[in-house]
Amino acid sequence: MDIDLSTAHKILNPSQFELIVLPTEKCNFRCTYCYEDFAIGRMPGEIVEGLKRLISSRADETAEFILSWFGGEPLLAWDIILDVSSHALKTFSTLGRNYKGYITTNAYRLKVGLFQELINVGIRNFQITLDGTKQVHDRRRLRRDGAGTFDVIWNNLIAIRDVAGTAEFPWFKIFLRVHYDGESIESLGRLVTDIIDAFSCNSKRFAVNLHELECLGGSRDNEIVQLTERDRALARTYAERLSRAGLRTIMPSDVRNYICYAARANSLIIRADGRISKCTVALSDDRNNVGQLFPDGHIEVDNDKLRPWIRGVFTGSKDELACPLKGLPLNSSSPLS
User: Fold this and answer.
1) How confident is the model at residue 6 (pLDDT cuts 50, 70, 90)?
2) Which long-range contacts (CB under 8 A, 24 or more apart) does 231-240 make?
3) Residue 49 falls within a domain, yes or no?
């Protein structure tokens, strides 16, 4: 695939900068398909300060800054999120620069009060996962103690919908990531109906991403039932129902020429211990350890380990741009060197 100038600019432009931050790698859930090991805890204070200093040091040369929160479950460290996001908002607002805040959360702790605080520090884009109907979700998306989680998440979403229903409330977008596999696809229609009933009245603020469950290296990947073509056709009918109800709905197959954040030279992951990575899936893979953030705010990046992740920029390979982890060289030597 040839990369046009606008695409190359998006991938390589140093004035566009994204940090994906893991304020903790612990989680209050134990989803059956999860690939994380939860070995690293809360980000220590010196790394938090280093993160804030890094943001400040890049502000003058950054026209657009994206700060995304991931985990573990990031809201277990909500105070770090508010602290760093507030710093970023103030820094970039003072300079008149574009700042965007994102978070991927299981939403178990996303009560209305915390939601409002997150909105106030510039986090306006939320990704929240539902694993199907309550019956299916509560078998797969469990708390650490084995209890189900659907009711708490759903009630939090309804409470947010109710308080944010006025035009005066700040803009936000909640993307409901709805998982399904060959076992759950037939029952998914009931959840689709519930989503339409609950959120189509506020379709400007709620959207749906129908997403096939993927085998990403979890110990129970074998429990994911693969989809048939009939299953995929049924998922498409669900997407059409949601769209007809006014809810923006996407499926991965709808996305053309997707470029993964890991393939972008201007996107870095800051882990809870200060290590710098490129991919949120391969957290236990040493090839993903490409550098380190230090307390004074400076970063050191191993270019030999970084280069294979962004090789698609140079090869133009559609596959390498969409998922550089697939086919990543077994050692840190770049195939381009």
Assistant:
1) low
2) 231/182, 231/185, 234/185, 234/186, 235/180, 235/185, 235/188, 235/210, 238/188, 238/189, 238/192, 238/210, 239/208, 239/210
3) yes
